[in-house]
């Protein structure tokens, strides 16, 4: 089979288009002949070796590595008779690595069956980012009907899906932040009620204005830096702040006692930690599949490239040229 592999950390140039033997599924795994493969920013961080630094505390990468976290395809082999019922079925799967290949192994408890007429490209674009957004809103907190939510980076991969999921869950008000007029318009088109710039120094005052001084009930934090601290200016009583990322760095440490004044909660999401809770992964995948099928979640696919051009896909993401997910075609 053809696959994308790297033997050393570095830029997109370390990605090699190579011939490899088919991987063998273990007892609780299946082998998928892939039809569409999603590219995510964590793939880039793995390629750069960021996760192999002690200060990240998020695990490492064993070289050589076939990267990639999500695929759509058909099951062609099962590791045990218990999963033979999946043979020939179209599935969407989330995995720790190995997606950048014409055949990939996935755990049987971290995939969901798809209808034969499901859009492979659309489904391949949502697993990693969509599951993250779902876990933030339904597991790390429970967004209740009528509550307000502030989604930072609302035009990004996780943020754009979080806006749509929040709308599906009945949010009373959705405020999105983004760094440009174009991105803010995009967030509004997805269902946000308001869109503001997080780089505007007094943006928390705008949030307080929209919420009539109460502040928001839930914040999905992806920015970090000084924005992290500013969040607590506009987080309401019993508000919950869920940290998903920090594109501008971690920011200043938060004094825990600061949470006491309004009985607020601070928590975080790191997707691989949930691999030990496949029931939650399955729940999220089912939600995404059904939301797309019902037209309530509209995946944003920035580009579709052949598997052989994975390095180009990584370069586009690093240059921030892609609005949405890039999907690889392993058959092109």
TrEMBL record:
Segments crossing the lipid bilayer: none
Enzyme Commission number, as recorded: 1.3.1.103
SMART domains linked to this entry: PKS_ER
Keyword Oxidoreductase: yes
GO MF annotations, alphabetized: 2-chloroacrylate reductase activity
Keywords from the UniProt entry: NADP, Oxidoreductase
Pfam name, any one: ADH_N
Enzyme class, first EC level, given as a word: oxidoreductase
UniProt key word Transmembrane: no
Residues in Enoyl reductase (ER) domain copies: 10-328
UniProt name for this protein: 2-haloacrylate reductase
């Amino acid at each position: 089979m053809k696959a994308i592999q790297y033997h050393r950390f570095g830029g997109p140039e370390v990605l090699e288009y190579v011939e490899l033997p088919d991987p063998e599924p273990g007892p609780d795994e299946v082998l998928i002949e892939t039809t569409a493969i999603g590219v995510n920013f964590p793939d880039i961080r793995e390629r750069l070796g960021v996760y192999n630094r002690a200060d990240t505390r998020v695990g490492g990468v064993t070289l050589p590595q076939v990267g990639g976290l999500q695929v759509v395809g058909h099951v062609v082999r099962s590791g045990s008779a218990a999963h033979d019922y999946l043979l020939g079925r179209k599935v969407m799967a989330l995995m720790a690595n190995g997606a950048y290949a014409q055949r990939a192994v996935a755990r049987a408890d971290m995939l969901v069956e798809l209808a034969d007429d499901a859009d492979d490209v659309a489904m391949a674009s949502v697993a990693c980012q969509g599951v993250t957004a779902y876990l933030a809103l339904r597991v790390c907190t429970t967004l209740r009907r009528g509550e307000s939510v502030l989604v930072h980076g609302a035009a990004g991969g996780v943020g754009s899906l979080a806006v749509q999921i929040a709308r599906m869950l009945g949010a009373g008000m959705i405020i999105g932040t983004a760094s440009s007029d174009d991105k803010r318009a995009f967030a509004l088109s997805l269902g946000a009620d308001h869109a503001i710039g997080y780089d505007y120094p007094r943006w928390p005052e705008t949030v307080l204005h929209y919420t009539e001084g109460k502040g928001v009930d839930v914040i999905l934090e992806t920015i970090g830096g000084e924005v992290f601290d500013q969040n607590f200016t506009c987080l309401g009583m019993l508000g919950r702040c869920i940290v998903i990322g920090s594109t501008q760095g971690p920011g200043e440490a938060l004094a825990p006692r600061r949470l006491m004044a309004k009985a607020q909660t601070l928590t975080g999401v790191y997707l691989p930690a949930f691999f030990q809770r496949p029931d939650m992964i399955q729940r999220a995948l089912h939600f995404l599949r059904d939301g797309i099928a019902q037209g309530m979640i509209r995946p944003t696919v920035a580009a579709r490239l052949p598997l052989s051009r994975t390095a180009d896909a990584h370069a586009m993401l690093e240059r921030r040229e892609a609005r949405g997910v890039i999907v690889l075609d392993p058959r092109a």
